[in-house]
Amino acid sequence: MEILQRQDNNAIVTLTMNAPERLNALSDEMLAALQSQLDALAQDTSVRAIIINGAGKAFCAGHDLKQMTAGRQSPDGGKAYFKDLFDRCATMMQTIQKLPQPVIAQVHGIATAAGCQLVATCDMAVAAHGTRFGVNGVNIGLFCSTPMVALTRNIPHKQAFEMLTTGQFIDTARAQDLGLINTSVPAQDLASTTQDLAERVAEKLSVAVKIGKQAFYTQLQMPLDQAYTYTGDVMVENMMHRDTQEGISAFLEKRDPDWSQ
């Protein structure tokens, strides 16, 4: 049984974390499988949108605690293993935001700790009603410091700090109010709603989306004046594309654009 399943549907790829007996924990094997697929997708210009979901009753319960416990058996008490684990996880999370394609989390059940981090890292997220989100490591004495990075870039700081220090779950309504997810829907509509969102993204000019996604994350780290200077240059680059010029002409002439890609 593959720990990560891939389904191709025209220009949309769905990656399904397939370890339901472990609540799709981000084990060493799961991280490696995700990294491998994401690296391949980064080079695949035929793919325009990516969906990440989980098999079974949960989206993702975070790191594999049994595996982490086993990692402590090394002579250094697991220090090297833990450093490598969190580095690999951080690389995978950053790869998602460096991809040219938008990535949508399709979430159900629970998304805890690094699983919540994965939701926060994806460019968009759709959740089933009843899904619970948490960064609960503090409940077992492990502050969710790496999940905090993605979480604090999604939701207001005081609310993030409350989640991190209390270990309490939030529901889909709260997650949507805070900006952790885009929307929530009945469970029976989760797959179709996520697919519809992916299709709306996939029908756009891919080079414009690629340019825009890179600029989106880059400008977030800049002071206001630098962000405007940078994005102005990005707009100039975008305007130089033949297909952008075609899109503008088509709009003015009230016809469908004849895009080359």
Observed structural traits:
261 residues, alpha/beta, 2-enoyl-CoA Hydratase, Chain A, domain 1, Lyase 2-enoyl-coa Hydratase, Chain  A, domain 2, 2 domains, six-stranded mixed beta sheet, two-stranded parallel ribbon, 11 helices, 8 strands, 49% helix, 14% strand
Strand content: 5-15%
Rg, rounded, reads: 19 Å
Instruction: Determine the mean pLDDT.
Output: 95
CATH superfamily of the largest domain, called what? 2-enoyl-CoA Hydratase, Chain A, domain 1
Number of strands: 8
The count of helical stretches stands at 11
Largest sheet: 6 strands, mixed
Description:
The protein is of the alpha/beta class and 261 residues long. The protein folds into 2 domains: 4-202, 2-enoyl-CoA Hydratase, Chain A, domain 1 (Alpha-Beta Complex); 206-252, Lyase 2-enoyl-coa Hydratase, Chain  A, domain 2 (Orthogonal Bundle). Helices cover 49% and strands 14% of the residues. It has 11 helices and 8 strands. Strand 2, helix 1 and strand 3 (49-54) form a beta-alpha-beta unit. The relative contact order is 0.11. The mean pLDDT is 95.
